[in-house]
Amino acid sequence: MIELINKLSDTRSLSTDEYEYLIKNRTDEAAALLKEYAVKARSKYYQNKVFVRGLIEVSNICKNDCYYCGIRKSNLNCDRYRLSKDEILECCKEGYNLGFRTFVLQGGEDGAFTDDYLCDLIESIKHNHPDCAVTLSLGERSRESYQKLYDSGADRYLLRHETADEVHYSKLHPSDLTLSNRINCLYDLKSIGFQVGCGFMVGSPYQTIKNIAQDLKFIEELQPDMCGVGPFIPHKDTVFANEKSGDADLCCYLLSIIRLIKPNILLPATTALGTVRNDGRERGILSGANVIMPNLSPLSVRKKYALYDGKISTGEESAQSLEKLKQSMHNIGYEVVVSRGDINKNNL
Ligand code: SAM
Predict the structure, then answer these.
(1) Mean of the per-residue pLDDT values of the chain
(2) What is the CATH number of the domain that holds 214?
(3) Ligand 1 binding pocket includes 182 (Cβ within 6 Å)
């Protein structure tokens, strides 16, 4: 086991079978060693800095029907909303004043988000805040569309691959959604020039250890700039309402491994991790993550953007959440910084 961890740390690469072995034989000692190496690898690029991104949940209207997701189109109990352009710009303004220098626009695949609409929105945000990065997380679109969004000034795109195994993918999604299209989108985004993020849920229904090993191998191959990995959490109005949540310790173990696969990667300690454990985000940072994405959405819509049950910080002002976060990061020896927080590409 120790040899395998040393090999990963030295070469940034293992075979799928080796990743599987690493996960199957997880012990507290292995987790501690991975964590130690991950923190060391990260500190070369980012010291003890934690980057924050202001998450704006722009719409919960979605044409897709992902079986795990609370805003899937067939959830008739979901109270649908879409923020107006003015509301989004207002969120950015508030965020800017709080010290955010990246805004993440996330939402369902809402037909109202045409290229023209989004390009105008991105240009307005960039006009108001030229020193900020805009990250989009709006699902699958054509290459032409991604190109237009990039040309309008968007910097980054988050599109979790969800699982790198076709069969597993088909158990989580209806047949109109395919892994091959998702992966093509990621490669399109990358070749256009976006900083790209993939990712997956830990403990999603039907996920095997081999599937997770495949996810790690996929991350190694794609070499994304960002990677969102958080526990699956059931939502009461989905096919998977009675499934159990993913394991926080396994999630942290995987964060350490991913940090070693790509030491300069931007790796969030997710809200889902903070939802399954009170100290989840702190543990995520201590395991190798370096990004946190506090919610900047208007309070009136936070509860409506319910991907899963029990989401944290739905009733808290943005300023209050950020203050608490800064304090909790300070308590574990980390510092939330005012920065765009781009990937550090220096060859260290
Ligand atoms: N529509 C865009 C997309 O498909 O990428 C962005 C929004 S989507 C809701 C964002 C992410 O939420 C998904 O990639 C998925 O991994 C995560 N998610 C959805 N349902 C979840 C659940 N029940 N538990 C944890 N994460 C979930």
Answers:
(1) 97
(2) 3.20.20.70
(3) no
Cβ(239) – ligand 1 distance below 6 Å: no
Q: What is the 3-state secondary structure (H, E, C) of the chain?
A: CHHHHHHHHHHCCCCHHHHHHHHHCCCHHHHHHHHHHHHHHHHHHHCCEEEECEEEEEECCCCCCCCCCCCCCCCCCCCCCECCHHHHHHHHHHHHHHCCCEEEEEECCCCCCCHHHHHHHHHHHHHHCCCCEEEEECCCCCHHHHHHHHHCCCCEEECCCECCCHHHHHHHCCCCCCHHHHHHHHHHHHHHCCEEEEEEEECCCCCCHHHHHHHHHHHHHHCCCEEEEEECCCCCCCCCCCCCCCCHHHHHHHHHHHHHHCCCCECECCHHHHHHCCCHHHHHHHHCCCEECCECCCHHHHCCCCCCCCCCCCCCCHHHHHHHHHHHHHHCCCEEECCCCCCCCCCC
Residue 344 resides in a domain = no
Residue 348: inside a domain: no
> Considering the domain boundaries, does residue 347 fall inside one?
no
User: How many angstroms is it from 2 CA to the middle of ligand 1?
Assistant: 34
pTM: 0.98
What's the rounded mean pLDDT across residues 199-212? 98
Query: Does residue 346 fall inside a structural domain?
Result: no
Among protein residues, the one whose CA lies closest to atom 26 of ligand 1: 232
pLDDT in tens, 325-342: 999 999 999 999 999 999
267 lines ligand 1 (CB under 6 A): no
Q: What is the pLDDT of residue 205?
A: 98
Range of the domain at 196: 2-337
Number of domains in the chain: 1
The yes-or-no verdict on residue 116 having pLDDT over 80 is yes
